[in-house]
Amino acid sequence: MRKVLVSLMVLSLVPALATAAVTNPEGFEGYALTTDWNPTLAVEGWNIVKMYGVDDGQLASIVDDGGTQILDINSQGGYGMVGSPMWDADGPPDSAAAVTKSGFDIKPISHSMGNQFVAKFARHPDTNPWYQCTWEVGIRVGKWSDFGTPYGPLVEGTSEPNGTYVYLRTWVGPEETYTETPIPGYGVGEFIIPHAVIAPDVIPEWYTVEIEEDNVLSKTRARMYLRGGTPSTWTDWMDHNAAVTYAGTEGQVFGWMGGQMQMDNWYIESEGGPAGNPGDANNDDVVSADDYGSVQLNFGATGAVNIPGDANLDGVVSADDYGSVQVYFGTVYGAGGASVPEPATMLLLGAGSLLLLKRKRKS
After folding, report:
1. For residue 84, what is the domain's CATH number?
2. 167 and 305 share a domain?
3. Is the same domain home to 132 and 255?
4. CA nearest 307: which of 282, 333, 278?
5. Share of the chain above pLDDT 70, in %
6. 300 and 208 part of one domain
7. Residues 179 and 137 placed together within one structural domain of the fold
8. Is the pLDDT of residue 358 over 60?
9. CA-based, 20 to 30 A from 171: which of 5, 244, 273, 333?
10. DSSP letter assigned to residue 163
């Protein structure tokens, strides 16, 4: 009997495991390998141009990286490269989910102008200028006025870099007003880009950048860590302008890049389903036994309202969520209104019927 119960619990967890999915990936696998990639936004969804038309080493290339294709940006001999917008992301509207997740992988390789490096990216609506963003994330080494603020840390009284600044900035509107915070793990004395004099032994590595937007509270947070390693601490939640909702299917990414870097795996996706369905921990519009499984699977998680497992919509997956599932058990949200069992619930009922039949035959 214990084996049967364990099997039924595993079956009830399967739908919860399948709830997270990348909906809008860009892995550069669909392009021909080229050492001079000149994309157009309308045709390919990307637009990257050389600043001031300077040709020295400025190339956007699609290259092979151990069997996977990546984007290589090389402006080390010139002023940099810019895309406004850079990527037509066509992300989901805020109304689609409680949380919008964005991210990409980046490998900083070398500086521009001798000791400068800039890689900054911002998500903004199609109809707004790039600075009216729900997030801007960036990596800065040194100071070069053409790249604009913010700047990386400097050796006092010189223009030499003294570390790496990685940051999150959000637009709070209605004018060019920002909030800004450092992304944990970087700062004075931390170098992730090789420098011939200051940090000659640094080996370029891939980093993962993640951004979450809380569409209920209009807040954003971000983090950056070694790809494949333990995720680092998030920034605090930062306010972003509630008027920016990405209504409809829109959302572009601005980019400003100086130095050499490689990028891969861009995405914007929804998580959590529309907010406001008490008891529905796995966000499938039905409160059933599957939701107990979702609470168990995500127990201890924290974040925006209605993250997976958050049945009582308080942003924390705890024992209280089991109670919320119990209170609302059988509720069906959305159109239709009929309370029908979910597929995993049907499996439970069917397995229970088989057990009863088996017991009846024995008696």
Report:
1. 2.60.120
2. no
3. yes
4. 282
5. 83
6. no
7. yes
8. no
9. 273
10. B
Q: Into how many domains does the chain fold?
A: 2
Task: Please indicate, yes or no, if residue 28 is contained in any of the structural domains.
Answer: no
Report CA torsion sign: 237, 241, 242, 248: negative
Domain assignment present for 27: no
Residue 35 lies in a domain: no
For 299, the domain range is: 2-17+275-362
Looking at residue 312, what is its pLDDT?
Answer: 85
Using an 8 Å Cβ cutoff, are 100 and 215 in contact? yes
Taking phi first (over 0 means left), then psi (-120 to 50 degrees means alpha), and beta for anything else, what does residue 190 get?
Answer: beta
Q: Which residues contact 23 (CB under 8 A, 6 or more apart)?
A: 92, 267, 268, 269, 270
Q: What pLDDT, on a 0 to 100 scale, did the predictor assign at position 107?
A: 98
Size of the chain, expressed as the number of residues it contains: 363
H/E stretch holding 353 reads helix 343-362
Read off the pLDDT of residues 281-295 as tens digits, 9 standing for 90 and up.
Answer: 888 889 999 999 999
**316 forms bridges with which residues in the sheet?**
302
Cis, peptide link before residue 92, omega less than 30° from 0: no
79 Cβ neighbours under 8 A, 6+ residues apart: 51, 52, 54, 112, 113, 146, 258
* 215 three-class SS: coil
CA gap 291, 129 in Å, rounded = 41
Domain annotation covers residue 26: no
Please choose, from the candidates 229, 210, 264, 227, the residue with its C-alpha nearest in 3D space to the C-alpha of residue 65: 264
